[in-house]
Amino acid sequence: MNVTAADVIEAVRTGPGGPRIGAFFDLDGTLVRGYTVASLYQDRIRRFQAGPAELARVLFAALDGLARDGDPEAIGRAGFATLRGMRTDEVAAIGQRVFDERIAGTIRPEARDLIQAHLRRGHTVAVASSATRLQIEPLARDLGIPHIICTELEETDGVLTGRSTTDLVWGERKAAAVRAFARGARINLRQSFGYANGAEDLAFLAELGRPYPLNPHPGLAEAAAAHDWPVLTLREPKSPTLWAGLGTLGALTAVNVALGVGMTYGLLSGDRRRGANLGLELAADTGLALAGVKLHVTGAEHLEQARPAVFVANHQSTLDVLVLGALLRHDFTAVTKREARFDPRMLVIGAFLDPAWIDRSNLANAKHTLDQAVARLRGGTSILVLPEGTRMPTPRLGRFKKGAFHLAMQAGVPIVPIVLRNTGELAWRRSMLVHSGTVDVAVLDPIPTAGWTVDELDKRITELRDRFADTLADWPVSAAGS
Fold this sequence. Notes:
By secondary structure, this protein is of the alpha/beta class. It has helices at residues 5-14, 36-46, 52-67, 73-81, 88-101, 109-120, 133-143, 172-185, 202-206, 218-227, 242-269, 272-291, 302-305, 319-328, 347-353, 363-378, 403-411, 423-426, 457-473, and strands spanning 2-3, 22-25, 124-132, 147-151, 153-156, 159-164, 193-196, 210-213, 231-232, 293-298, 310-313, 332-337, 356-358, 382-385, 415-420, 437-443.
């Protein structure tokens, strides 16, 4: 029997709740597409940190493991040995960087929704994997998973020895580790959920009352049929395709042509603002259309309800620029970091928006820039601010900076929150390609800033960030894209 993410989420929602119900997720091939260790080695090779001798040892161990019917022990020992002498904090920093740069883009989008469904029911959620904490912890933090069952590395005085204290948590050893964790946490395994993709996880899944082979390899798919286990298929992260490349190229061409039309109109009519509005509207609409991107918006009435305003949005993708342009359409500019001024993607758009370029390294200059932005707000031009300050690697929110809130408070204008759900799925932060699909947008009620004081600003920022997080975790039904 085949089931979808929506089917399983409904089963979680209507089933028993509480911490005695476990939800155990394998990592490689389950939460993410592919293997996280490959991303780590790609990073080491790219930085010339893995020499020919090390690569030869790992490759030989992999071939030896395959020759012995896939026994992973030799591969594990070879991999652990490469970490000998490294500090644990150094390894943790590498793991976070590789997650941000590589692994984040391989997370299966529906896996995030599934995890949130378990967390909302109060289940005890854990990653159960043969991978190490180096590979797992950044992803677990991002997904909000509080527990990790994994291969542990040995360390002495904060330095790795190149050995493991648990041996590789794989196959039957992984099943035993899950049983031990369940005993300690008083989890009822017969009512618990398990998700994995490989035949090596048969023993692990058999421990659980609700096993779900997830995008299973052939061996596990055969076992699932024999055991009458439901097979869960999650959609994969977007991969580069010829159509995505052509759509992106068409969108970039259309954006530049449209901005040129707007510039020409502004020069001929002597009305620069009308020319900018025309160019930006044409650029956003035609760019999205040629890229095959549609918008599904709830709360669209709030976009015109309170102008001028400070519009704030979460930021995950280059696509955000076109989406926000299509939403705001006219009489707005942006506050953005000075470094973006030299980004080729911002040269033409920057000329049209004439944004306030803020230099965070110079307090006096930053204050002067914000004062100019306040004057523009008072003159009737709305301001767009991305308060995280940079593109985030996943939908998980970053820290909100204070600039947008100071602007709104000083100008006496409302803040209008714009929550973008899945732009990063269609155009990951480290990719130039835009894939076709529907972007879900929720525009929240405008927030008046009259009466705000500097002393309560931190509280106001926390409240707004919480509204973004709540919206992303429990998306308005009317905003769900088809």
